[in-house]
Amino acid sequence: MAIDIGIAQQDREAIAESLSRLLADTYSLYLKTHSFHWNVTGPQFNSLHLMFEQQYNALWMAADEVAERIRTLDVVAPGSYTQFAKLTSIKEETGVPDWKNMVEQLVEGHEIAAATARKTVKVAEDAGDEGTADLVIGRLKDHEKTAWMLRSLLQ
C-alpha cells in the first residue's frame, strides 16, 4: 500500500537522508560513550562511569526513535557499521584516552550531533514535516544539554 502522509516522496527521501546522518552520529556517539563507560579510570571513575551509562542508554533509545522515523517516512534506515561510518561526522576512538580526553571527545561528539540535528530540522521544516522537526528538536536540545553538562566537568 502506498504511503500518503502529505509529504512528497522526494521530500521524504531528503528528510530520511538527513535523519540517516543523525542516526549515524547518534549510534557512533552511543558506541563511543559505551566504550568510555567500560574503560574510564581515574579519580572521577564512579561519577563518570555512572554518567556515561545514563548517556549511552539515552543514546540507544534515541537511535531507535530516529530509525523508526526514517521507516515512518517509508525509507530504509541504515543499520551497519559500514553505513554509519560513511554517514557520521564523529571521529572513531580505537584507543583508551584518559578521563579528561574522553569527556572532551564526548563534548565534541554531542556538538557535532547537535549541528546535524539543526540541519535536519531545517530540511524537515522546509518540507512541512512537523513530525520529524518535533522529534529532532528534542534530540537537538538533548545533545546541547549533554554537551554543556560534560563541558562543565572540564572547568
TrEMBL record:
Entry keyword DNA-binding: yes
Pfam families found in the cross-reference section: Ferritin
Keyword Metal-binding assigned: no
Keywords attached to this entry: DNA-binding
Domain spans labelled Ferritin/DPS: 17-155
Molecular functions (GO terms): DNA binding; ferric iron binding; oxidoreductase activity, acting on metal ions
InterPro entries: DPS_DNA-bd, DPS_DNA-bd_CS, Ferritin-like, Ferritin-like_SF, Ferritin_DPS_dom
Protein family membership: Belongs to the Dps family.
Designated name of the protein: Starvation-inducible DNA-binding protein
Organism of provenance: Oleiagrimonas soli
